Amino acid sequence: MNPRTEPPDHALGRSRGGVSTKVHQLVDDHGLPLVISLAAGQSGDAPALVPLLESLRVERPVGRPRTRPDALRGDKAYSSRAIRTHLRGRGIRAVIPQPRDQQARRKRRGSAGGRPPTFDQTEYTGRNVVERRFSPLKQWRGLATRYDKLAIVYRAAIVLNAVIVWAQRCP
User: Fold this and answer.
1) Pick the CATH number of 4-169 from 1.10.10.10, 1.10.1760.20, 3.30.420.10, 3.40.190.10
2) 72-100 pLDDT per residue, tens
3) Distances from the Cα of 33 to the Cαs of 6, 130, 138, 163, in angstroms?
4) What is the largest CA-CA distance in the chain?
5) pTM over 0.85, yes/no
6) Domain ranges, ordered by start, for the chain
7) Residue 11, H or E segment
């Protein structure tokens, strides 16, 4: 496993009231899901990141499981001071672009605004892995249409899809 993860930000399924369920996943560099969780469709993406990271455990042949990736790639929705502080405290490199409004606010404050956060553009180009992970999920009719009434049944279908992806990857 290459220890870089990408947080998800996709909603699958629609109901009459709008988007009904959000699927949050951490995936590795190869698009293999590591952690899966569900949230209400109207909830934000950023609050789900810390619980996902706390659930991350990648077993190794020898020693303790890895609970900390080297880097985390995320889109602008994950660019908050709280998330960056949390990642820095755990020793995880943040590869998250800064939105224009945050850039403008920092520049308006002048020298009190501090330095801009580091951002590696070439590393960020690999973020499309998480987008490609959600494409096969959207092809499953039961997931895309959200026929399941219970969240546990819906999550089970997503986990089954993840098991199939892992089985196809591993000989």
Assistant:
1) 3.30.420.10
2) 998 888 988 899 999 999 999 999 999 99
3) 10, 9, 15, 9
4) 56
5) no
6) 4-169
7) strand 10-15
